[in-house]
Amino acid sequence: MGERTLPARLDHAWRVVGTGLSFLAFGIGGLVLRLCVFPLLQLGVRDPARRRKLARRWIQRSFAGHVWLMHTLGVLTYEIRGRERLQRRGLLILANHPTLIDVVFLISLLPDADCVVKVGVARNPFMRAPVRAAGYIANDEGAGLVEDCIAAVRGGGNLVIFPEGTRSEPGQPMRLQRGAANIAVRGRLNITPVKISCAPPTLVKGQKWYRVPSRRFHMSIEVGDDLPIAPFVDGVAATPGGEVLAVRRLNDHLCQYFSGETARAGT
Question: What is the pLDDT of residues 204-215, one digit of tens each?
């Protein structure tokens, strides 16, 4: 490959700056929510359920603002297909996880989203207060985790889970943890699948934020038709060891579903 032209080098340099500004804004936004917004909600809203709902709405708006900022700065472009399918309540939303900002995009589309978050996120100084105020579920809650997730969906919440548990590893086969499938099977919950792709790949696992790609990256988010749980559990779950078999079958199906999209997207 030849040396990049001056306009290409300037564009690349600006996207490094724009990415840095985006991360800085994200951190500042988290501090503002922690120091200003959530304490006011704590003082001014007595009902815990209403306070949690308002906190989630603030997080949704701040994440939508972050997406807007990255787009305005020329860091990324994006498209969302099937967005209307998220305008319902009581959804178990499962998505693949190719980039660092997948959760930002998903939460920006869901005014009252619930999430299962990693312990590290729950303890992050920029994210600890939002996680606590929104009542997100930490994945270290042990035996009660599955029941809490089922209760959240049955209570009308939209629960977002990344079955991989962490970002995808480029060039490696997709591996899904069975927690999400276990929640769907035990709760008899249909699944709303979301396929996410990013081209060129960026913000992947192990990559520094300043290693921006050669051009603006494009995020594609496709909300698929609901995946019924009945075919995986009917006639199986009630038998000895049937739930384990149903979870394995569902997990294999989800792995094929998401990895097929990843292969086509070239990520």
Answer: 988 898 899 999
* Residue range 132-185, pLDDT digits in tens: 888 888 776 566 889 999 999 999 999 999 999 889 888 888 899 999 999 999
CA 237 and chain centroid, separation = 29
Distance CA 91, CA 114 (A): 10
Per-residue pLDDT tens over the stretch 54-106: 999 999 999 999 999 999 999 999 999 999 999 999 999 999 999 999 999 99
- CA 178, 181, 185, 188 torsion-angle sign: positive
Number of residues assigned to the chain: 267
Distance CA 23, CA 141 (A): 29
Report the 10 Å Cβ neighbour count for 223.
Answer: 21
Question: Taking a C-beta distance cutoff of 8 angstroms, is the pair 68, 119 a contact?
Answer: no
63 DSSP 8-state letter? H
Task: Answer whether 57's CB lies under 8 Å from 112's CB.
Answer: yes
- Judge contact between 213 and 251, C-beta under 8 A: no
User: What is the pTM (predicted TM-score) of this model?
Assistant: 0.89
Residue type, 171: G
Orientation angle between helical segments 179-187 and 242-265, nearest 10 degrees: 130
Judged by DSSP in three states, 168 sits in coil
Quick check: 150 and 186 in contact, CB under 8 A? yes
What is the rounded distance in angstroms from the CA atom of residue 258 to the CA atom of residue 174? 8
Structure tokens at 13: 């340099």
What does DSSP assign to residue 75? Answer: S
